């Protein structure tokens, strides 16, 4: 699965890594050019998944790599 690959729900490898707090995988994908603001079919970003599961290190990494904390999902919610 490449850094821009998507599953049926529009989620990327970065999104899944953020949901499970896989910081090393996140760093690798981000360093290879993965988009920290990629949205799935619900408009959720990797930052919103990391926030839901409260992975502080993951949140910090995504924010340091330029993830937008004000990005809204399809319901108008922001990650933070």
Descriptive overview:
With 80 residues, the protein is an all-alpha fold. It has a domain of 52 residues: Serine Threonine Protein Phosphatase 5, Tetratricopeptide repeat (Alpha Horseshoe), CATH 1.25.40. 41% of the residues lie in helices and 0% in strands. The protein has 4 helices and no strands. Helix 1 runs antiparallel to helix 2, helix 1 runs parallel beside helix 3 and helix 3 runs antiparallel to helix 4. It is globular, with a radius of gyration of 11 Å. It starts with 12 loop residues before the first helix and ends in a 16-residue tail after the last helix.
Write a short abstract of this structure.
The protein is mostly helical.
Relative strand content? under 5%
- Structural class by sheet pairing and helices: mainly alpha
Could you give a short account of the major beta sheet? none
Uncertain stretches of 5 or more adjacent residues: none
Architecture of the domain at 13-64, CATH level 2?
Alpha Horseshoe
Annotation keywords:
4 helices, 80 residues, mainly alpha, Serine Threonine Protein Phosphatase 5, Tetratricopeptide repeat
Write the layout of secondary structure elements.
Elements: H1 13-20, H2 23-31, H3 46-52, H4 56-64
């Amino acid at each position: 699965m490449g850094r821009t690959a998507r599953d049926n729900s529009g989620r990327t490898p970065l999104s899944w890594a953020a949901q499970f707090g896989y910081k090393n995988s996140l760093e690798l994908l981000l360093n290879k050019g993965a988009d920290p603001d990629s949205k799935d079919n619900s408009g959720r970003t990797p930052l919103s998944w990391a926030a839901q599961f409260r992975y502080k290190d993951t949140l910090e990494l995504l924010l340091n790599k330029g993830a937008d904390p004000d990005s809204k999902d399809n319901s108008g919610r922001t990650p933070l």
